[in-house]
Amino acid sequence: MAKPHPHPHSHSSSTSTTAFLGLGLHKKKKWVLMVLALFSVSTLIVLLMRAAISDSCAHRIRDYRKDSAQREIPGFSSSSRASSSPLGVGADVVWITYQKPAETDEVVYSLENKMLDRGVQVFSAKGQKAIDTALKADLVVLNTAVAGKWLDAVLKDNVPRVLPKILWWIHEMRGHYFKLEFVKHLPYVAGAMIDSHITAEYWKNRTKERLGISMPETFVVHLGNSKELMEVAENSVAKRVLREHVREALGVRNEDLLFAIINRGRGVSAALWKKMGEEKGTKEGVSRGKGQDLFLRAFHESLQLIKQKKLQVPPMHAVIVGSDMSAQSKFETELRDFVTEKKIQDRVHFINKTLTVAPYLASIDVLVQNSQARGECFGRITIEAMAFQLPVLGTAAGGTTEIVVNETTGLLHPAGKEGVTPLARNMVKLATHVERRLTMGKKGYEKVKERFLEDHMAERIAFVLKQVLKKTKGHT
Ligand SMILES: *[C@@H]1O[C@H](CO)[C@@H](O)[C@H](O)[C@H]1NC(C)=O
Ligand SMILES: *[C@@H]1O[C@H](CO)[C@@H](O)[C@H](O)[C@H]1NC(C)=O
Ligand SMILES: *[C@@H]1O[C@H](CO)[C@@H](O)[C@H](O)[C@H]1NC(C)=O
Predict the structure, then answer these.
(1) 288 and 211 part of one domain
(2) Can you give the CATH number for the domain in which 57 is found?
(3) pLDDT reported for residue 391
(4) To test ligand 2's pocket by mutation, which of 286, 319, 325, 353 has the most ligand atoms within 8 angstroms of CB?
(5) Please, what's the b/e burial string for 371-392 (b: 16 or more CB within 10 A of its CB; e: otherwise)?
(6) Cα gap 195→187, rounded to integer Å
(7) Same domain as 243, residue 148
(8) Residue 148 sits in which domain range?
(9) For 48, 89, 334, 388, which has the most beta carbons within 10 A of its beta carbon?
(10) Rounded mean pLDDT of 74-95?
């Protein structure tokens, strides 16, 4: 592929450099191009710190495995649009990571190799090269709240020089991030980018109340579905194959109704947390915050409702993707005990944690997004399910409320125990009103096409970069 010409107005004398700390690959490719188109940035540096947090919002890295795994799903051919993107448009792209390729796991390894394929430099977040790069950069994008620790640990005395050109991308909404050691520099950075309005508001409140600091200018950027996911979602042959395959494996028939709660289980390694100087890691997959327990209760209640009212509906099943018996968690044992006690073993299916969610999205009928408390920061699985034309039964909390249109693309229920009966009723509603269920799925898909594609996200990010780069001019 021919290299695009450098931007006519680029100032080749100045080493304009943009440094990101952690961005999605496909999006980044676009940002790079957009940034170049918009701002004459002649050198672009991408720093990627491994998304070290296993939070409801830290999806970035996990998504890569999902994407690459999806390409390998048999039954449909993947497009070969993969590698040849010209990141080179007069840009130097550098990805800085906390782990060296040799010690990374499969996901990071394949991501790094994709970067290298695209001419992106990859080097360690520790060391002189990282410091030099950050000093030269026009913009440094920090990914995740904990990336704040990198500033002091690596940049040391140089921190004040880099702060005014930092765009901080935050995907977390949990108490333990509200620590000064992570976020004390927040007020001095050029801007913050957050996945949902409600999370942005939460950060504003918490930083003020808990830490007595104020947020910088904050931009909300909803995420978008990857092209790879859309390819599967829009390929009816692939979907049918996946559906038959998964249903057969579960022992459920084509006409049975499947309600699923899906969490990508990629727990972040304790080792990485340790590197970051943190003892505490959080566990992804089956956990109380994801509300699988309340979902099972609601499911059981819906079966009873159907029995009581003698409703004619196909056999219903609950699928819980993201379990991990090897973890021996008390919570998961409770879930399984509940299923045994209520004698619904033949209706409930636990599926080990996986990063490859497309086969399940292709196989189920309804996605349940039952995140509790403050809910999801954004809730990527929600837009992914909508891409597969699935209605969503979600808690009226967090980012879900910014995605699901109540009564149109899904039905919302309250978080907490008081949500169990409403969720049970909503499940019955979707089981009995087939047309409505299908219509909701279609509307969800339309919404994705309107707002939640990778291109939309890239546009939103381009806007943010434009704003932030205006401010950072003159700091290099
Ligand atoms: C933020 O604080 C305001 C005022 O106290 C409150 O109304 C709002 O619900 C809070 N928002 C979040 C997300 O915590
Ligand atoms: C699921 O995980 C458990 C525990 O790690 C393992 O024993 C089991 O074989 C796994 N099942 C599948 C289908 O991979
Ligand atoms: C969703 O819509 C239903 C029906 O109008 C309503 O009863 C319910 O309160 C709504 N829920 C939310 C969270 O808006």
Answers:
(1) no
(2) 3.40.50
(3) 98
(4) 325
(5) bbebbbbbbbbbbbbbbbbbbb
(6) 19
(7) no
(8) 17-224+454-472
(9) 48
(10) 32
